[in-house]
């Protein structure tokens, strides 16, 4: 059987902390909430913004994000987006994060 050294896998992946820091820089000005060791961030939206509308607009751009609804355990669902950071290289993730930032800023000023 083929044995792949663990070091090659470790080197191929960015650390969660560095990915989080870089993502926060791209999303500058937006309220990013996450643990530095996590491969996802939450992006709370202002009162007028709708997470479902933003998620649909981003899906039209072939960018998949989640709303808070599937993760919510209360009757009141917060308007927020959950953005996964660990599934693609940061060079591919950066343009998607820029599109998320643009979509959120556009939604805020509708």
Question: Would you write up a description of this structure?
Answer:
- By secondary structure, the chain is α+β, with helices and mostly antiparallel strands.
- The chain is built from 4 helices and 3 strands.
- The chain has a 3-stranded antiparallel β-sheet, with helices on one face.
- Helix 2 runs parallel beside helix 4.
- The chain is globular.
Would you summarize the structure shown here?
The chain has 110 residues and is an alpha+beta fold. The protein has helices at residues 6-12, 16-26, 51-60, 90-108; strands at 40-44, 66-67, 80-84. Helix 2 runs parallel beside helix 4 (90-108).
What is the strand and helix layout of this fold?
Elements: H1 6-12, H2 16-26, E1 40-44, H3 51-60, E2 66-67, E3 80-84, H4 90-108
Antiparallel strand pairs: 1-3, 2-3
Helix pairs in contact: 2-4
H/E topology pattern: HHEHEEH
Give the proportion of residues in helices: 40-55%
- Strand order in the largest sheet: 1-3-2
Give the low-confidence spans.
1-13
Give the CA-based shape: globular
List keywords for this structure.
110 residues; alpha+beta; three-stranded antiparallel β-sheet; 4 helices; 3 strands; 43% helix; disordered N terminus
